[in-house]
């Protein structure tokens, strides 16, 4: 396995998107999708503090968190990454997209790129994702990306695991 941190933060180009490091100049654009430990930021200061924790997790080799930038504008439209499990050769894939960019293919492209990176660069043996039963769009997306449900709903959450083949998209 080749775990973070890397000599150079990985930048990955996909269809429509670039997965890149989040810069301080991006913070005001992503306050509404800034989360840490399931707590959402409501101010720029909170978002900055959360990003500092995310950056520390990366430097400690526990996660990798990309901004999803629109390829044509370099504006962040969402985030995705692996947030736990590296110590077991696994990765929990998480993502969030700004509401005005949903349904435009950004997240499909971002997750395909992140999955490819997780399997072939990090060397993950297992990739999983957790969402709520109400998040029908997330469920539809991860099922489209060859994730299969592995747990029955508990506390409104459902867990999916990637089959080892990526879809042809």
Residues in helices, as a percent range:
10-25%
- Contiguous uncertain segments of 5+ residues: none
SSE arrangement, N to C: EEEEHEEEHEHEE
Query: Which strand order spans the largest sheet, edge to edge or round the barrel?
Result: 1-2-5-6-7-8-10-9
Query: What portion of the residues fall into strands of 2 or more residues?
Result: 25-35%
The CATH architecture comes to 3-Layer(aba) Sandwich
CATH level-4 homologous superfamily: Gcn5-related N-acetyltransferase (GNAT)
Largest sheet: 8 strands, mixed
- Overall geometry comes to globular
Write the layout of secondary structure elements.
Elements: E1 12-13, E2 17-20, E3 35-36, E4 39-40, H1 44-59, E5 64-70, E6 76-82, E7 90-97, H2 106-122, E8 126-132, H3 136-144, E9 147-149, E10 157-162
What can be said about this structure in brief?
The protein is 25% helix and 28% strand. The chain is built from three helices and ten strands; from the N terminus they run ββββαβββαβαββ. The two termini are 27 Å apart.
